[in-house]
Each structure stands twice: as C-alpha cells, then as structure tokens.
Amino acid sequence: PNPKPWEDLTNETPFQLTNLDWDVFGPLLDAAINRLPTLERVGIQNTICGPEAFTVDGRPFVGPTNIQGLWVQCGFNSAGIMLSGGTGKQMATWIVTGSPTLALDHWSPLRVQQGRCDLQHAEIVKQCSATIASHYKPMGDLTFL
Question: How many Å apart are CA 144 and CA 35, to the nearest integer?
C-alpha cells in the first residue's frame, strides 16, 4: 500500500536487484500472517527484489507500435505472469492473421505515443504509485494481496 518509486534510473536498472525494503513489505507480510498464522513459523527463506514495470493508466502495452514491424507486450503492472499466456496467444494470432480474437485496442501502445503524453515526471511517478497501491485493497484488519 505504500509503493516506493525507483529513483536514479540508468540503462542498467532493469537488470539490477536490490534488498527487500521491510518498511514497504512489512505491512503486507503482517497482513498475510494475520490471515495465515503458519507463515510466521515458516519464515522467509529468500527474497528477490527488482524493478517492476507500471504504466500511468494501469494498463499494459500490447500490440503494434508506430514503428513498422515492432510489436510490444509489456508494462503489465505486476500481472505479467497472470496475463502473459493469454496476451502471448493473442499477439501470435494478431501477427499471423492480422487481428486478435479479443478486443485489445484499450491496451494499444499507441495511446501514449511520443508527443501525446504531456505529464511531468512528478505526475507520472504519482500516477504509477497510485496504480501500484491499488493492487492492495484493505479489508478491515486484513489486506488482500
């Protein structure tokens, strides 16, 4: 519920790992333990932390771009594992037949093509942070992950 934007991005950032930020992860772990007390006994054996792709509007980019032959499937806002199989199938169908079998225009990368996004960096960070925070909905004493 309190996302932490990654500052000082470089070309190497997408391949970097970092230490777990317990101030961010702790409340989520506490909520999980509250739901499943056994978690407290088994503990955490290992963590892997790194950058995640989020979009300003919370929707991924799927489909052709304005560059001939360049297709994208990215920015899944922490839902990549869940959505990749279905979107991969749709992309393959789209590339081979000329159209997907599902309406994917709301995920078009053209919605934010160069020159169409007039948001300043601070506003982008704010909106992406809100997208991340929306993944964790408080319900009474519990936070559903």
Answer: 9
What angle (nearest 5°) sits at the alpha carbon of residue 36, between those of residues 138 and 19? 75
Write down the pTM of the prediction.
0.63
Per-residue model confidence (pLDDT) at position 144: 43
Q: For 34-59, what is each residue's pLDDT tens digit?
A: 988 998 999 888 888 877 777 878 88
- How many CB atoms sit inside 10 A of residue 8's CB? 5
Count CA atoms closer than 13 A to 6's CA, side-chain side: 16
Nearest to 60 by CA among 9, 5, 105: 105
- Cβ-Cβ contacts under 8 Å for 108 (sequence gap 6 or more): 61, 62, 63
